[in-house]
Design goal:
about 475 residues; transmembrane; mainly alpha; globular; Transporter; transmembrane helix; membrane
Length: about 475
């Protein structure tokens, strides 16, 4: 498969470099993203009005793609607000404090619970469910909110999603593209997922503790559901609070049972949790505020949506730019500029694969880099079919290692694009924990790169 890179590809790559440099330096990227969208639009359409309109349309596209996540975060925040004001949240988390007594126990405990949940339902519903309940416990025992976000993010969007052993969406895509049985790719991925997960999470925890000890840790907090003043608390009787503290977790546990029984995944699972949160919000608000319940329900929802859009606002421009690397480009600017293309980021992955010589070491390194490149659109899944095809081509040239190379590309693509490095993809964990998604991405960067390097070395020996 031969791909000829055009000016569009090189300009897109240049702007990626600018954006990543600004993220590392903790500078705002909105202006560069808008300039990138405008420049790409101008190259594609040769029209000033088309490129200017493309800026707005790309924002609309990104918002539509992110809307489900914005809504679930907003609703969970609205529900959390009334639970905090009534003291129900305090009653819910009290039993958990006996299990998560130290920052280390909180980090690894939250991570393992997130891993188990994400294997069955994918990470986004798990983040909303686990974060709302366990974050207050973690903060109370000394784990920073950013540390809790890292644990949920690395174990859920990293380990669980990259292996995807229960739902099997990822290995099915890569295996089909590579012409292999799904079971072969899953078996080959086991040692790689273990190495990637262990190295990355241990590195992340060690770096966190090191920076906390030296005073260099920055939690990157943003506005979140604030703890109320004592005078602002809504008085409920102790029996009522205790009863609701039992009923609410039971309702979410019932959601989990329904997800298992009906095999609800992804957006369907998120919708079930979101709907349950709305029901809880309404029920508790009507019970707590009585005659003012109708008005207060609307007030809590407004507060939740204000929070959601305030958190997502800075992310929409950068998401709009990176979505242009995939299907959004043709939809916004027409397909004439990229005829025969598989999307800008996928084209760059293919071009890289075509530019290197073939042996086990080079094949492994190239699959890791190619997987990471295809993950730059923030999906994690959009490019892994391409990775499977490239792994098939490489393994034919090398003479072995088809399943290992396929699994390696899958892991790299999902760890980068599925929600550990791309800021808008990791927003669920960041928003629930009240931290900056950009700070979370920066904090994840070094551990994930260390993990990818270690996993690639292991793959070289397995190929």
């Amino acid at each position: 498969m031969h791909i000829e890179l055009t000016a569009l590809h090189w300009v897109y790559l240049a702007f990626i470099g600018f954006i990543l440099a600004l993220l590392v330096k903790r500078r705002d990227t909105t202006l560069v993203c808008v300039a990138g969208i405008f420049t790409l639009g101008l190259l594609a359409t040769a029209s000033l009005d088309g490129s200017v309109s493309g800026i707005f349309n790309s924002f609309i596209y990104a918002t539509k793609e992110l809307l489900g996540t914005i809504f679930i975060i907003s609703i969970i925040v609205a529900m959390s607000r009334v639970l905090i004001l009534t003291g129900i949240n305090e009653a819910m988390i009290r039993p958990l404090t006996g299990f998560l007594r130290t920052p280390a126990m909180a980090f690894w405990g939250i991570g393992l619970i997130m891993l188990a949940t994400s294997l069955f339902f994918w990470p986004s519903p798990g983040v909303a469910l686990i974060g709302a309940v366990l974050l207050p416990v973690a903060v109370r025992v000394g784990l920073p909110a950013l540390g809790a976000a890292m644990a949920m993010n690395l174990f859920g969007h990293g380990i669980a999603l990259s292996g995807d052993y229960i739902i099997q969406g990822a290995p099915k895509l890569t295996a089909d593209a590579a012409g292999l049985p799904v079971s072969a790719v899953m078996a080959a991925s086991v040692p790689l997922v273990i190495v990637m997960g262990a190295v990355t999470t241990i590195a992340a925890y060690w770096l966190m503790r090191k920076d906390m000890s030296s005073g260099k840790w920055k939690d990157g907090r943003v506005e979140t559901v604030a703890a109320p003043e004592s005078g602002a608390l809504i008085v409920l009787t102790q029996p009522v609070k205790r009863a609701l503290a039992i009923v609410i977790p039971l309702l979410f546990a019932l959601d989990v049972a329904v997800m298992l029984a009906f095999r609800l995944q992804g957006g369907d699972a998120t919708a079930l949790i979101g709907g349950t949160a709305v029901v809880i919000l309404i029920g508790v608000t009507m019970l707590a505020h009585r005659n003012q319940g109708l008005e207060q329900t609307t007030s809590y929802l407004i507060e939740g949506f204000q929070f959601g859009f305030r958190v997502f606002g800075p992310v929409i421009p950068i998401a709009a730019f990176f979505y242009l690397g995939d299907a959004a480009f043709g939809e916004l600017f027409g397909g004439d500029a990229l005829q025969g293309s598989h999307g800008i980021v996928n084209d760059m992955g293919v071009a890289l694969a075509n530019a290197v010589p073939m042996n086990g070491t080079v094949a492994s390194v190239t699959l890791t880099v190619t997987g990471a490149i295809t993950g730059l659109d923030g999906s994690g899944f959009s490019g892994i079919s391409l990775v499977g095809s490239i792994a098939h081509m490489f393994s034919a040239a090398v003479g072995s290692g088809a399943a290992t190379l396929t699994a390696l590309g899958q892991i790299a693509g999902i760890w980068v694009g599925g929600g550990t490095l791309i800021p808008w993809a990791l927003i669920p964990a960041a928003a629930i924990c009240g931290v900056s998604p950009f700070e979370l991405a920066r904090r994840n960067l070094k551990p994930v790169l260390i993990g990818l390097a270690a996993t690639t070395v292991v793959a070289i020996f397995l190929v």
